[in-house]
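Bug #77: duplicate submission created two jobs. Keeping one. Sequence:
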Amino acid sequence: MIKNGLVDDANQKTVEIILAGDPVLTDIKLAIEVIPEMSNETILHSGPPISWKEMCQAQKNAVIGGMLFEGLADSHEKAIKLVERGEVILSPCNEHATVGGMTGITTASMSVYVLKNLKYGNIAFCNHHEGWPIKALHWGNNDTDVITHLQWLDRVLTPVLRFAIKEMGGLNVKKIVSKALNMNDECHSRCTAATALFIAEIAPYLATSDLDRDSVKQSFEFLRRSEVFFLHIIMSAIKSIVEPAKGIEYSTIVTNQARNGVEFGIKVSSLGDEWFTGPASPIHGLYSPGYGSEDAGLDIGDSCVTELVGLGGFSIAASPSMALMKGETTEQALEQTKQMAKITFAKNPFFTIPYLNFEGAPLGIDIRKVIETGITPFIDTAIIHKNGGLIGSGIACAPLQCFEKAIQAFKKKYQQ
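Kept job's structure:
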């Protein structure tokens, strides 16, 4: 029989490691230069491992788009043949210290943020958020406009942001998230304040730089229109602070969760790198005019890494505006955050919620509590069409099956 005190001590150690994390944006580099085991033929995707055959259509579209962007193929047909022949490596972002939004497609020559956890020295990565066009690679689109925009991000935006980041000596992401959470963001689906704070940080360095003025102007115009832009920086920051919390014996804290539009997967600190999966969930929310649930794909993306530390669906009480966008009332948002407190081990003192008297956000999903209560994590997310394209915003619930499999594995490991 496993003693609860032993597990609680392990869980306390796990959350202390997470809380001690100090994520700093230090650079922007090409994926091939910094992501572990990256190659020119590797296409990283969101969620747990999945074969080409089993992938949802939106993610397949994005894989094709990534190949077109890289020049691995010059048509959809040629791209598909290369994948089917095994000449392209498909691998989860999370297996490479990386996270990817929605379809998650990350390729060799894409620019990625370099987030260093100064406390533990590990590094995590994520590519640029493409902004809010209805069509984007991360939404599962791959037409000429999408590829052209990806090229613009690398050609124009990357040098501008990299200059500012290097000039300022790095950006403390934790401080920005802490402030933004008190400014109506929940720092997953809504990053309006966080993006504005980011712009305020980089603006002085760019205003006096010798960079091409048109490039700076274009970059600011893009950031001004892209309120959720800072999300991918947050995602990689959170990835960097949860990674050191892996491998704690007896810990029942979830240290990874991700979706690929087919499956939802979790990892648990004490259970190594094994994925525990269940079916991806439908998303309940508000749709753009002309669309409904029959058009929607299932829950997808690595952005639910934010919920691991209390952001997103765990802190929706901090963002009445986002609750409204998800089709919820303020009262429902408050109740949702309180529900998440029932399945977590601690509170996050760095990320506080004004409407709960600045109580810390629920921190550390505990698989024991999920099983005991039957409550699974709420995930704030965008809704993409099953064939690609942004069509709404809503909330998904993680499948209970992930946690049932994990608790059985935990018992098998420690009750032998």
